[in-house]
Design brief:
This protein has 395 residues and is of the alpha+beta class. The chain contains 8 helices and 12 strands. A 5-stranded antiparallel beta sheet has the order 2-1-5-4-3, with helices on both faces. The radius of gyration is 43 Å and the shape is elongated.
Amino acid sequence: MSEAKIALLEKALNRERQARKAAEKILEDKSLELYQTNQNLRNVLNEKEIHLESLFKTIVDPYILMDLYGNVLKMNDASQAFFGYNDTFNVTSTLYKEDVEYAMESYATLLEKGTFRNFRARIYNRKKEIRWIEINSSLVYNDEGEPVFAHGIVRDITEDLIAQKEREELLNHLTISNKELNDFAHVVSHDLKAPLRSMNALVTWLHEDLSHLIKDEDIEKNFQLLIKKIDKMDHLINGILKYAGVDKVERSERQVDLDFVVSDITETIHVPKHIKIHVPEKLPTIRGDKFRLHQLFQNLISNAVKYAKEEDGLVTVSYQDKGDNWEFRIQDNGKGIEEKYHKKIFDIFQTLDDHHNSTGIGLAIVTKIIALYKGKIWVESEYGHGATFIVLLPK
């Protein structure tokens, strides 16, 4: 072989050696890169697995993972404590007999739609105790989009349902008691009114028959006092009926012109000549029941008229827009109310004097109406300087 061919062959071999070294270097770099990538991926997967395992253990409510046949594959500590099983079990075996059909229908919906919310049923735990559960469940799919598992969070709602049932029973008893009380108030009032009318007639006739014989002023005063007491009893009975009926009838709400309501009240109630009722500006139109609002303002205005000054008496009705509420003020210039009575006067049958028309029910009716509207009422007064009743009604 000639020297030229040998030199050419050596040159080709050198190029091959260099190419092989370059390829080996590239392969070595890629292998190292692949190794590092693999390590990073493994670290990420381990981190995710640790994170998921930690999340799985820290879920407060029972959590279960099961196959499509109801066999529990994995559950957290809360599930073990709730169901009483430390090993796997089949969910269907824990179902209350009467709830099995509903459970199967719900499971069919889960397989069809992939999720099922607010499933409620009774189950037996390992101690054979019946518990009510609520489950929000969903399916887990593989890469081909096929369902492979089902999982969900289980809530024990037994105590909630017991409390709800107790509230319903209490509400039912309260409704029955209120009806019985209302019926009792009407029956008693009717039974009291009949003899009361007879007493009033008898006393009036007796007074008329003996009027020409009565010479003693004390006897005449006693007759008048007896008639006033009978009249007060009649007011009291009517007040009880009104108080009992304030919240018994469902009434439609609409826009009510309070300017018209107050004007109607001032024209129909008895206002002595020495008392003036002053409304400095037009009152607003508010949403509510006209009958109840009429009751509310009539009681407050009548009360203010009753306790205004005996000479130059003044009652003022005003309002302010307080954003989310209307604030109404009914003010008189009477003797006022001592601070120790500011709360007491709103209780039923509580009155500050023995006025023959004072039953102690008017302000109780007002308080009851305001409570229906979720409003507030209070009084501002200093003894000797009149009283102002403030009513706050939501718009």
